[in-house]
Amino acid sequence: MDFPEFYNNTALAFANYTGPLPDRPILQRRFSILEQQLPIDSPLLTFQAYTRDIFEYPWIFILPGVSVPLYLAMVFFLPYFIHKKRECKLAMQIWNFLLTLLSVAMFAVLSTSVFADMLNYSNPVYYVSCLPGGSLTVGLVPYAAIAFMFSKYLELVDTLFLILKKKEVIFLHWYHHATVLVYSWFSVILMYPPANIFGIVNSFVHCVMYSYYFIASFGVRPWWGKYVTRIQLAQMVVGILTTTSWAYYYYLSDLPCGFWSPLAKNLTVYNIPAESLLMISTLVMYVSYFILFLNLYLNRFGGANNTESKSANTTSSTSTNKRGQAAKKGQKAQEKKKNK
Question: Is residue 88 part of a domain?
Fold first, then answer.
């Protein structure tokens, strides 16, 4: 299915637009028919136009480029300055509750728009991969996308809590936070269609994850804790499949598919086009996540060796306890004989 007539008409209007922001480079460019589908009154376009100093190359690299090194410095150096464990129970309860609410709101907005538009297409895989209906650019979706982009900065506070409580910050934790921050930033800025699906799935996962943390902070461990990691593994599979599908429609199919942001037109990094770089980095990111989360899951919950070692530890500790009790009884008996 081709683009709806409304968006074709909007494309022509956008190509000839000379409205109230003629000095903004983002509104002066001319694009192919695919890239012209961005509605003029899109909140995300307006947001980008009025913040051109941030979203124009090379400034779009500054915020993540500064934030990630500072975050890694916190991970590796702040623990040396924390000499005793901080109790952050109330703060963590409030934090997890607020992030649960934010995740629910983002999931609701992003998912309802996509699934409502999907009913108009006979090929749901194509729609989910390329979003030809322009749902990334209208209604509340751009605001939810922007909120999702900046939520990755908020989630860095999770690491701060671990450090304050003098808990180990494992590689998976800081690697995931750092890379997903950069990826979400550029996906939203370039309006990469699969990013909406990633946002939907990730928001859902975080609804489950942060609600689990919130409940667990009261001393109650929900029975469905191990399913959090399973859902995360499913998220990685969805990410790999969606990226592969987008690549097929973008490079091999005659159906229109691409980026929705004007910034994607001429953006290159070391002469690598934005679309190729983003696709490759997405696959590398999700494959690495899957391997790391699978390893985490097997170490915590699965595997015959894990089960056997737990059983052996339990048997060993039980026999040790029995020997200790027998020894104590023997000592008591000897003391009674001496007293007599």
Answer: yes
Burial 301-328 (b: 16+ CB within 10 A, else e): eeeeeeeeeeeeeeeeeeeeeeeeeeee
> Would 121 be classed as within a structural domain?
yes
**Domain of 179?**
38-302
10 within some domain: no
User: Is position 6 within any domain?
Assistant: no
Q: In this structure, how many other beta carbons lie within 10 angstroms of the beta carbon of residue 69?
A: 11
pTM: 0.75
pLDDT recorded at residue 265: 63
- Please report the beta strands in the chain, taking only residues with DSSP state E, as ranges in sequence order: 268-269, 272-273
Cβ atoms of 243 and 283 closer than 8 Å: yes
Query: Measured on CA atoms in the order 230, 177, 179, 114, is the torsion positive or negative?
Result: positive
Q: How many domains does the chain have?
A: 1
Here the tokens at position 171 are 């590689």
pLDDT along the chain (340 residues), means of 10: 35 37 32 41 56 55 88 96 90 96 94 78 84 71 87 96 94 96 86 87 95 92 88 95 92 81 67 81 95 93 54 45 54 55
Q: Provide the annotated active-site residues.
A: 176
Cβ 16 vs Cβ 22: under 8 Å: no
